[in-house]
């Protein structure tokens, strides 16, 4: 990447704390649309991955929504969070957006614990080609923000790391220097994930691979870390997924196996080889054939592929299970909704008859 292009990328990313683009005059954008120096906060939070399955392996009791319902609930929470953040930031800056050093000084005095304001200040200095001043502002922010505000401090460290990735001399050493300092204070897993996110977005694949190797040893019981390893392998098109899955199975606690394997299977469907994803699901269902949550997630992945014959064959297998009425009702309802979405009255009637037969046989 060329220097000018990198400058543009860092500037807009500095613009806020949630999604970012380039340098320039500071605009009234919320952190929900811009990220701090290209490291999204999603990489540093405590969530494990999309479509997480949480169930009790021993009781076989589903404790999840279907994937579609999960996404809907997740989207609602995200929208609410973004609304709250924007409202908070609007209160911080109001209609009077800082456009000078003095105005930013006033803003950080009014909101000393807001990483949002500090990072905007850093972005402003970068837009003026004042890299050293941007560093000084990062240092001030770290010493000013209350020690209890761990998330706000983490945001500053993330922005600082990204700044050094662009302007450090040499960048790799400068980044590690800040990273090692941050490790003394921040949650180590979140910080490692933030650094990994930066390496991946700036296409520093060798450094990302080296970091992931360290992370899978340091956080070997973390489902999220192993899933990031799987995701990284898939993105680079490497034929190493099975090896990673095998290593993870040996390292993760048994109560995390289903969670990891189901997520790895979902990743295969999304950005790898669907057949490998099917193999993972089939292996889990062989061991836990009565797990309706697994059947549901498996079906959701097949919905993405859209092969009607495969989907119907999977539904037929699921509806032949000997499960409690409540669980069978869930499967039949999903089957019926699928056929209704296709608009075939014959198939809809077929599913209804099949469901009635199950009810009659259960009563008998």
From TrEMBL:
- Domain of life, per lineage: Eukaryota
Note whether Nucleus occurs among the keywords. yes
The organism encoding this protein is: Acorus calamus
Give the family this protein belongs to, as stated in its UniProt record.
Belongs to the crooked-neck family.
Q: Which residue numbers delimit the Suppressor of forked domain? A: 262-361
Keywords for this protein: mRNA processing, mRNA splicing, Nucleus, Repeat, rRNA processing, Spliceosome
Pre-mRNA-splicing factor Syf1-like N-terminal HAT-repeats domain location, by residue? Answer: 79-186
> Among its keywords, does the record have Repeat?
yes
**Which compartments does it reside in?**
Nucleus, Nucleolus
Looking at the Swiss-Prot or TrEMBL record, what is one Pfam family this protein matches?
A: Suf
Q: What molecular functions are annotated in GO for this chain?
A: RNA binding
* PANTHER family attached to this UniProt entry: PROGRAMMED CELL DEATH PROTEIN 11 PRE-RRNA PROCESSING PROTEIN RRP5 (PTHR23270), PROTEIN RRP5 HOMOLOG (PTHR23270:SF10)
Which GO cellular component terms, listed alphabetically, does the Swiss-Prot or TrEMBL entry include? small-subunit processome; spliceosomal complex
The membrane spanning regions, by residue number, are none
**What GO biological process terms are annotated to this protein in UniProt?**
mRNA processing; RNA splicing; rRNA processing
Q: Where is it mostly found?
A: nucleus
Q: What is this protein called?
A: Suppressor of forked domain-containing protein
């Amino acid at each position: 990447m060329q220097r000018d292009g990198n400058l543009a990328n860092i500037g807009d990313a500095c613009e806020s704390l949630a999604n970012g683009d380039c340098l320039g005059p500071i605009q009234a954008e919320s952190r929900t649309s811009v990220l701090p120096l290209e490291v999204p906060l999603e990489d540093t939070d405590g969530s494990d991955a999309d479509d997480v399955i949480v169930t009790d392996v021993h009781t076989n009791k589903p404790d999840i929504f279907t994937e579609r319902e999960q996404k809907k609930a997740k989207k609602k929470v995200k929208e609410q969070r973004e609304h709250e953040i924007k409202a908070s930031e609007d209160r911080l800056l109001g209609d009077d957006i800082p456009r000078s050093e003095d105005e930013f000084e006033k803003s950080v005095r009014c909101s000393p614990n807001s990483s949002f304001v500090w990072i905007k200040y850093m972005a402003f200095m970068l837009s003026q080609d004042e890299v050293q001043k941007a560093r000084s502002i990062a240092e001030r922010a770290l010493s000013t923000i209350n020690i209890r505000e761990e998330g706000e401090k983490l945001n500053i460290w993330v922005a600082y790391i990204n700044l050094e990735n662009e302007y450090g001399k040499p960048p790799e050493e400068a980044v590690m220097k800040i990273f090692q300092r941050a490790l003394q204070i921040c949650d180590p897993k979140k910080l490692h994930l933030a650094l990994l996110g930066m390496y991946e977005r700036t296409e520093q694949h060798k450094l990302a691979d080296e970091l992931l190797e360290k992370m899978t040893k340091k956080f070997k019981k973390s489902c999220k870390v192993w899933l990031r390893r799987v995701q990284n392998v898939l993105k680079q098109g490497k034929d190493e997924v099975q090896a990673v899955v095998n290593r993870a199975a040996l390292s993760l606690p048994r109560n995390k196996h289903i969670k990891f394997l189901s997520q790895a299977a979902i990743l295969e469907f999304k950005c790898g080889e669907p057949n490998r994803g099917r193999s993972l699901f089939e292996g889990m269902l062989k061991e836990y054939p009565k797990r309706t949550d697994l059947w549901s997630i498996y079906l959701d992945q097949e919905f993405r592929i859209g092969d009607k014959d495969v989907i119907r064959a999977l539904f037929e297998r699921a509806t032949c299970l000997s499960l409690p009425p409540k669980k069978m009702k869930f499967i039949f309802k999903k089957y019926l909704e699928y056929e209704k979405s296709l608009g075939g009255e014959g198939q809809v009637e077929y599913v209804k008859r099949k469901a009635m037969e199950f009810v009659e046989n259960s009563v008998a």
